[in-house]
Amino acid sequence: MIDSLDRSKAEMNFHAIWFNMLSMTMEEFRHSLRGEQPPAHISLSLAGLWWDAKGDWNRAHESAQQDEGLAGSWVHAYLHRKEGDSSNAGYWYRRAEKPPARCSLEQEWLEITESLLIQAGSDAKNRAPRARG
């Protein structure tokens, strides 16, 4: 028979495994760039940043465009800024509820990626199935 302490430990372990499966660090994200495709579990906006880091602006844009939320708009803004289309970028920054970036493109990519990875980790933690007792 499992006592309540063992059950509590098992539940914590279960949630830690679930969280680690769905969350990703910046180091892991960068390591994934060695692959041919973005990791299957990342969001469309993170996939857009992944494709951008791989040098494929068109695929990056397609991914960002599919995410109709704030994150997709933010990546979309970054991509149009990178493209040199400041007017279109401005539109997407407004949709993302973000001020236009003034930093380097590399710094902006890093800031967006870190922010979205943190958000994805938080979302994963909130989506973790509840262990039944």
What do you see in this structure?
The protein is an all-alpha fold. It has a domain at 40-127. The chain is 71% helix and 0% strand. The protein contains 7 helices and no strands. Helix 3 (44-53) runs antiparallel to helix 4 and helix 4 packs antiparallel against helix 5. The longest helix has 23 residues, at 105-127. The protein is globular and about 35 Å long.
Write a brief caption for the model.
The chain is mainly α and 133 residues long. It has helices spanning 4-22, 26-32, 44-53, 57-66, 70-83, 86-96, 105-127. The longest helix is centred in the last third of the chain and has 23 residues, at 105-127.
SSE arrangement:
Elements: H1 4-22, H2 26-32, H3 44-53, H4 57-66, H5 70-83, H6 86-96, H7 105-127
Helix pairs in contact: 1-7, 3-4, 3-5, 4-5, 5-6, 5-7
Rounded to an integer, what's the Rg over CA atoms? Answer: 18 Å
Q: Count every beta strand, where a strand is a DSSP E run of 2 or more residues.
A: 0
Q: What shape does the CA trace take?
A: globular
- Element-by-element helix/strand order: HHHHHHH
Provide a count of the helices: 7
**Main beta sheet strand tally, sense and closure:** none
Beta-strand percentage range? under 5%
Helix percent reads over 70%
Low-confidence parts lasting 5 or more residues at pLDDT below 50?
Answer: 12-22
Mean pLDDT, all residues: 83
Compute the separation of the termini in Å.
Answer: 13 Å
Structural class comes to mainly alpha
List the main descriptive attributes of the protein structure presented here.
about 130 residues; mainly alpha; 7 helices; about 70% helix; about 0% strand
